[in-house]
Amino acid sequence: MSTCASMRANVLVVRHCYRADGDVIRIISARKATKAESKEYWRYCHEG
Protein backbone atom coordinates (compact mmCIF):
# COMPACT_ATOMS: atom_id res chain seq x y z
CA MET A 1 0.00 0.00 0.00
CA SER A 2 1.28 3.44 -0.86
CA THR A 3 0.16 6.84 0.26
CA CYS A 4 0.42 9.91 -1.95
CA ALA A 5 -0.25 13.59 -1.36
CA SER A 6 -0.65 16.63 -3.55
CA MET A 7 0.15 20.28 -2.89
CA ARG A 8 -3.50 20.77 -1.91
CA ALA A 9 -3.05 18.43 1.07
CA ASN A 10 -5.26 15.71 -0.40
CA VAL A 11 -3.95 12.29 0.57
CA LEU A 12 -4.68 9.11 -1.39
CA VAL A 13 -4.26 5.50 -0.34
CA VAL A 14 -3.19 3.39 -3.32
CA ARG A 15 -2.94 -0.40 -3.40
CA HIS A 16 -0.70 -1.70 -6.13
CA CYS A 17 1.34 -4.70 -7.22
CA TYR A 18 4.21 -5.23 -9.62
CA ARG A 19 3.98 -7.62 -12.54
CA ALA A 20 6.48 -10.49 -12.57
CA ASP A 21 8.66 -8.76 -15.17
CA GLY A 22 8.90 -5.68 -12.94
CA ASP A 23 8.16 -3.24 -15.77
CA VAL A 24 4.44 -2.83 -15.08
CA ILE A 25 2.70 -1.60 -11.94
CA ARG A 26 -0.95 -2.60 -11.56
CA ILE A 27 -3.14 -0.25 -9.52
CA ILE A 28 -5.65 -2.34 -7.60
CA SER A 29 -7.49 0.49 -5.88
CA ALA A 30 -7.19 4.16 -4.95
CA ARG A 31 -9.25 6.16 -2.49
CA LYS A 32 -9.16 9.31 -0.43
CA ALA A 33 -7.43 8.70 2.88
CA THR A 34 -9.42 8.86 6.09
CA LYS A 35 -8.69 11.67 8.53
CA ALA A 36 -6.64 9.28 10.70
CA GLU A 37 -4.63 8.04 7.69
CA SER A 38 -3.96 11.62 6.60
CA LYS A 39 -2.70 12.56 10.07
CA GLU A 40 -0.43 9.51 10.15
CA TYR A 41 0.97 10.33 6.70
CA TRP A 42 1.74 13.97 7.53
CA ARG A 43 3.24 13.02 10.91
CA TYR A 44 5.52 10.50 9.14
CA CYS A 45 6.53 13.08 6.49
CA HIS A 46 7.54 15.69 9.06
CA GLU A 47 9.49 13.38 11.39
CA GLY A 48 12.94 14.41 10.46
What can you tell me about this protein's structure?
This protein is of the alpha+beta class and 48 residues long. The chain has one domain (2-45). It is 23% helix and 42% strand. The chain contains one helix and three strands. The protein has one helix at residues 35-45; strands spanning 2-5, 11-18, 25-32. It has a three-stranded antiparallel sheet with strand order 1-2-3, covered by helices on one side. A hairpin with a 6-residue loop joins strand 2 and strand 3. It is elongated, with a radius of gyration of 13 Å. It starts with a strand and ends with a helix. The mean pLDDT is 84.
In brief:
The chain has one helix spanning 35-45; strands at residues 2-5, 11-18, 25-32. With 48 residues, it is of the alpha+beta class. The longest helix is centred in the C-terminal third of the chain and has 11 residues, at 35-45.
Total domain modules: 1
- Percent helix range: 10-25%
Determine the strand fraction and express it as a percent band: 35-45%
Overall mean pLDDT: 84
Query: With helices defined by DSSP (H or I, 4 residues minimum), what is the helix count?
Result: 1
Biggest sheet statistics: 3 strands, antiparallel
Order of helix and strand elements from N to C terminus: EEEH
Strand order of the largest sheet: 1-2-3
Query: Which spans have pLDDT < 50 for at least 5 consecutive residues?
Result: none
Whole-Å distance between the termini? 22 Å
Rg: 13 Å
